[in-house]
Amino acid sequence: DGEKDALPHCNLQVYTYTCDVGKRENVYSTAERVRKEVGEVSVLVNNAGVVSGHHLLECPDELIERTMMVNCHAHFWTTKAFLPKMLEMNHGHIVTVASSLGLFSTAGVEDYCASKYGAVGFHESLSHELKAAEKDGIKTTLVCPYLVDTGMFRGCRIRKEIESFLPPLKPEYCVKQAMRAILTDQPMICTPRLMYMVTFMKSILPFEAVVCMYRFLGADKCMYPFIAQRKQATNNNEAKNGI
Asked: Which residues are catalytic?
């Protein structure tokens, strides 16, 4: 009785564009189309991500380059495309969807960890630059989730005794937490909150103690089952295609 919708009914129009964010020319040309067909962008969410799924010495160079281009370099191109108008209006919000592996690393996914560390470093430096320029109308939010149950890291496992306390996160939960952080201008959000503790412990403990903590959690080789599954899938695909 008397309940009202949280949002008013209105006619919304959604525009979609296909863009290879790893290629700066593609980003810039698509951004120009967006400006002409839709208007200026006030909220930029950098969320594209890929993973090679190979140990370093088994990973083709082109896959390493792709991971870095999509997960890290693309943030430079998209931000350079849309930030100028935000600066002019002193209004906007830049969201970097990184990863907990951009705050602490694990074995077997060197390219992914490096790309996410790069994304975190880019975001933090950009945030400082905006503060130094006194552009207080442009907000930034860094999103660092734990393993999300999207299939991207299917097979990744931590110690089974710990897994029930730290299961893969549902995408809907991650989106809800990220949206709450964005709407409240929160500079950073880690999900679940336990990730803050792991990051803090990594910052104060000596490396060998961190190794022991990783081994206790089963996080030191958590990606190995995932890499094995990817390798098996690749071998099956090559056999199927007669390669």
From this structure: 112
Region 24-238: CATH code:
3.40.50.720
Q: What is the pLDDT of residues 16-30, one digit of tens each?
A: 999 999 999 999 999
The answer to whether the pTM exceeds 0.70 is: yes
Residues 6 or more apart in contact with residue 161 via CB below 8 angstroms: none
Report residue 30 as tokens.
């698509």
The DSSP line for the chain is -----SS-------------TTSHHHHHHHHHHHHHHT---SEEEE-------S-GGGS-HHHHHHHHIIIIIHHHHHHHHHHHHHHHHT-EEEEEE--GGGTS--TT-HHHHHHHHHHHHHHHHHHHHHHHTT-TTEEEEEEEES-BSSSTTTT----HHHHTTSPPBPHHHHHHHHHHHHHTT-SEEEESTHHHHHHHHHHHS-HHHHHHHHHHHT-TTTTHHHHHHHHHHHHHHHHHTT-
In which region does residue 232 sit, left (phi positive, over 0), alpha (psi from -120 to 50) or beta (all else)? alpha
Burial class (CB in 10 A: 0-12, 13-18, 19+), 11: exposed
Whether the CB-CB separation of 225 and 217 falls below 8 Å is answered with no
Q: What residues contact 138, with CB distance under 8 A and at least 6 apart?
A: 83, 86, 87, 90, 91, 92, 93, 94, 130
CB 147 within 8 A of CB 168: yes
Contact predicate 74/27, CB 8 Å: yes
- pLDDT digit string, tens, across residues 186-225: 999 999 998 999 899 999 999 999 999 999 999 999 999 9
